[in-house]
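stage 2 :: seqdesign
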């Protein structure tokens, strides 16, 4: 995988989504800018909003609705309804290594789809020379250090999320898409 000198991202964007709906809207805007072959790695603890974000991506891509958490399925394909790329949604949470992920054979769909891998950091970088790493974080007061807690409030109260997007590789060298 080729990365900029020093291994850092081409660019980083940090956005705030005030609730689940704004998370989906932001992701929908990003989805409209994606194309076949793009790889996204989603990071955030259980309940952080990775699936909510992916639902927005799907809307922006114009894929079949019904994106759910892939917790009990390793890979789910959401076909395009508008002639664009399909969305391949992957949960790498239970996979221990890049070798186990290779057994899924994502290489066969990478060129024709947008691939979103939850829990994929350290496991999927070899699939493409470019990727977006999206981290979903929720600030919860905490101490003076600014503690970040990565989970949704189970009471249903939406709290602001920080969505950090880091772009790696030549696909993203022209700057942020949002």
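stage 2 :: out
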């Amino acid at each position: 995988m080729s990365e900029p000198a020093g291994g850092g991202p081409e660019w980083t964007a940090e956005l705030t989504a005030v609730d689940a709906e704004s998370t989906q809207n932001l992701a929908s805007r990003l989805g409209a800018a994606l194309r076949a072959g793009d790889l996204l790695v989603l990071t955030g603890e259980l309940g952080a909003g990775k699936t909510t974000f992916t639902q927005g991506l799907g809307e922006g891509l114009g894929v079949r609705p019904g994106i759910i958490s892939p917790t009990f399925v390793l890979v789910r394909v959401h076909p395009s309804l508008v002639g664009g790329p399909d969305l391949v949604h992957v949960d790498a949470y239970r996979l221990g290594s890049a070798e186990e992920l290779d057994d899924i054979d994502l290489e066969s769909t990478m060129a024709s789809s947008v691939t979103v891998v939850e829990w994929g950091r350290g496991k999927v970088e070899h699939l493409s020379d470019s990727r977006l790493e999206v981290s979903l974080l929720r600030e919860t007061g905490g101490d003076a250090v600014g503690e970040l807690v990565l989970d949704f409030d189970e009471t249903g109260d939406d709290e602001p999320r920080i969505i950090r997007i880091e772009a790696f590789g030549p696909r993203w060298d022209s700057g942020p898409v949002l």
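stage 3 :: structure notes
- The chain is about 20% helix and 25% strand.
- The longest strand covers residues 131-139.
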